[in-house]
């Protein structure tokens, strides 16, 4: 859904990317800074129950995920390795966010139900990403789904941050909605991948392959 905003975000970020590139900052440096920042802040603040501060700090470092591409374009240094590293660290960053929340809900937060919901969101997020990667590995596009990574991060960070400020029911509602959207996105991608792999042209091609 937020995919439509990416061209606009890219144009906004490009001048910042140029400044960083002139300062000798590489895309890899930006990617690593963002990932390490998310990992450290999510696993430090969330298990302590600092939900608002944790969400605010994590959001700052998540923004680096937008900057690395801008730096790569500005310095003409985009590469397959950079894309692979960025994607891999995105998965680890997402895991850190939900793992930090899981630790809180199973300890000081003492909410087994929300702990289960967070665990489902963690597993579901990996499922959403894996289905797309596996489909592309089989040669088909699976760029569909109601809740891609950007949407999932916005929902979890906003709802948890507001919950940390004491806004009632927002965090619980956000996490339940996120769990539902993960399940729907998995279903969407499974259906899309099956349809694309079942196209007549693909079946004929497979049959003719040696």
UniProtKB/TrEMBL annotation:
GO molecular function terms attached to this record: transferase activity
Note accompanying the cofactor annotation: Contains a di-nuclear catalytic Mg(2+) center.
Major place of residence: membrane
Keywords: Cell membrane, Lipid biosynthesis, Lipid metabolism, Magnesium, Membrane, Metal-binding, Phospholipid biosynthesis, Phospholipid metabolism, Transferase, Transmembrane, Transmembrane helix
Coiled coil: none
Catalyzed reactions per annotation: 1,2-di-(9Z-octadecenoyl)-sn-glycero-3-cytidine-5'-diphosphate + 1D-myo-inositol 3-phosphate = 1,2-di-(9Z-octadecenoyl)-sn-glycero-3-phospho-(1D-myo-inositol-3-phosphate) + CMP + H(+); a CDP-1,2-diacyl-sn-glycerol + 1D-myo-inositol 3-phosphate = a 1,2-diacyl-sn-glycero-3-phospho-(1D-myo-inositol-3-phosphate) + CMP + H(+)
Pfam family, one: CDP-OH_P_transf
Protein residues bound to Mg(2+) 1: 65, 68, 86
Transmembrane segments: 20-45, 51-71, 113-131, 152-169
Cofactor: Mg(2+)
Positions annotated as active site in the UniProt record: 90
E.C. designation(s): 2.7.8.-
Residues reported to bind Mg(2+) 2: 65, 86, 90
Name the record gives this protein: Phosphatidylinositol phosphate synthase
Originating organism: Nocardiopsis sediminis
């Amino acid at each position: 859904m937020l995919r439509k905003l990416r061209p606009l975000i890219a144009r906004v970020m490009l001048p910042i990317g140029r400044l960083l590139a002139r300062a000798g900052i590489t895309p890899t440096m930006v990617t690593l800074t963002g990932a390490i920042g998310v990992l450290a802040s999510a696993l430090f603040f969330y298990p302590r129950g600092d939900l608002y501060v944790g969400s605010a700090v994590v959001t700052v470092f998540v923004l680096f995920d937008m900057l690395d591409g801008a730096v790569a374009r500005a310095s003409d240094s985009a590469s397959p390795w950079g894309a692979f590293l960025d994607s891999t660290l995105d998965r680890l960053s997402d895991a850190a966010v939900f793992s930090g929340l899981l630790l809180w809900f199973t300890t000081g937060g003492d909410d087994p139900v929300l702990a289960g919901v967070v665990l489902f969101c963690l597993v579901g997020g990996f499922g959403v990403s894996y289905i797309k990667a596996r489909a592309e590995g089989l040669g088909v596009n699976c760029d569909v789904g109601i809740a891609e990574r950007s949407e999932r991060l916005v929902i979890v960070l906003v709802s948890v941050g507001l919950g940390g400020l004491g806004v009632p029911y927002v965090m619980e509602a956000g996490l339940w909605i996120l769990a539902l959207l993960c399940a729907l996105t998995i279903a969407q991608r499974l259906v899309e991948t099956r349809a694309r792999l079942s196209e007549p042209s693909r079946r004929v091609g497979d049959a003719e392959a040696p």
